[in-house]
Amino acid sequence: MSEEPEADATTAAAPKWPKETPPRLAYLWMRSVARWAVSAIFFFTVCPALVVMGMFVDPRKNDKPQRWLSRNLLRLAGARVEVRRSAGFDPRRTSFFVSNHVNLFDPFVLYGTVPQFIRGLELESHFRIPAYGWMMKRFGNVPVPDTTKPSELKRMWRLARAAVDRGVSLVVFPEGRRTLDGRVGKFLDGGFRMAQRFGTPIVPVSIVGSFEFNRKTSWILRPSTIVVHFHDTIETAGLSKADVPNLRDRVREIVAKPVRAGLADSTEELALPD
C-alpha cells in the first residue's frame, strides 16, 4: 500500500473537546483511581522481578516477560490495543521505529506491539525514575543526554550504532515531548540523521486513540481503543545528509495522517448525545 504525504497541517486548529457532565466526570474519576491503583500495584510488583531476571538472563530470552508486562499493564489501565500493518511494512528488518508521543503509556504500547526485539532512545532524565528508570537502564535503552556536550552526543551515537549492529531495532519519539493537544508536533532531526548515517530503514508508526485514553495534562484514564499503525518501511540507504529534512517531513506527515483522522472521529463521537 503506497502512502503519499499530504500538505503540512501543523497550523490546523486544535480539536475542540465537548465538556463532560458532572456525573460522567465523577464516574471517570472513580474509575481512574481504581485503574491507576491496580496498574501501579501490578507494575511495581512485576518490574523488580524482571530487573532481577535481567541480571541473569539474556535480554532476548527475557523479551517475552517484558511484553507480557506491557500488554497487561495497558489492559489493567483500561485500554484495548489493536495493530494495523501496511503491506509494505517489513517486520523482519532492523529499523528505526519513529512514532508520535502522547503519554507515559506509549513505550508499553510499542513494546507490546512491535514484532521484533526493540530498545528505545530515551531521555537520560527518565533513567532516574524509580523502578521504571532502573528497568530501562538494565534492559539497554539508549540514553539521550540532557545537554548538547559533544562527548555526550558521541556516546549516544556510539550506543545507538552498537545496538543496530547487534540487530536491535530502536524506537524514536522525534517530537521530543508529549503532545498537549493530541496533534503530531514538529519532528527533530536526530533520529533521522542516525538512520541516514547508519543506512538503517525507518518505519513510521502512528499511535491513534492514545490521547483519548490519557493525556499529559490529566490523570484521568478513559476507556479507549488504541490503534497502532505500522506504515511502509522506508529505505535510507543511499540518502545524503541533505536528504534528511525531506525524509523527516515525509515521515512526519505519514505518522500524522491517521492521528488527525482519529482526532476528528473522536471529537465527533464525544459530541453525540447519549
Number of helices: 8
Q: What's the end-to-end separation, in Å?
A: 37 Å
Strand tally is 7
Q: Which strand-content bin applies to the residues? A: 5-15%
Choose one word for the global shape.
Answer: globular
Radius of gyration computed on alpha carbons: 19 Å
Encode the helix/strand succession as letters. Answer: HHEEHEHEHEHEHEH
Averaged pLDDT, please? Answer: 87
How much helical structure, as a percent, in the residues?
40-55%
Q: Which class best fits the helix and strand makeup?
A: alpha/beta
Low-pLDDT sequence parts: 1-12, 270-274
**Main beta sheet: strand number and arrangement?**
7 strands, mixed
Arrangement of strands in the largest sheet: 1-7-6-2-5-3-4
How many domains in all? 1
Topology (SSEs and partners):
Layout (H helix, E strand, L loop, with lengths): L21 H35 L6 H15 L1 E7 L10 E4 L6 H6 L6 E6 L8 H8 L2 E3 L5 H16 L3 E4 L17 H9 L3 E7 L1 H4 L10 E7 L13 H28 L3
Parallel strand pairs: 1-7, 2-5, 2-6, 3-4, 3-5
Antiparallel strand pairs: 6-7
Helix pairs in contact: 1-2, 1-4
What's the short story on this structure?
With 274 residues, the protein is α/β, with parallel strands linked by helices. 44% of the residues lie in helices and 14% in strands.
Defining traits:
7 strands, globular, 44% helix
Notes on the structure:
This protein has helices at residues 22-56, 63-77, 106-111, 132-139, 150-165, 190-198, 210-213, 244-271, and strands spanning 79-85, 96-99, 118-123, 142-144, 169-172, 202-208, 224-230. It is 44% helix and 14% strand. Strands 1-7-6-2-5-3-4 form a seven-stranded mixed beta sheet. It contains eight helices and seven strands, in the order ααββαβαβαβαβαβα. The chain has one domain (79-271). It is an alpha/beta fold.
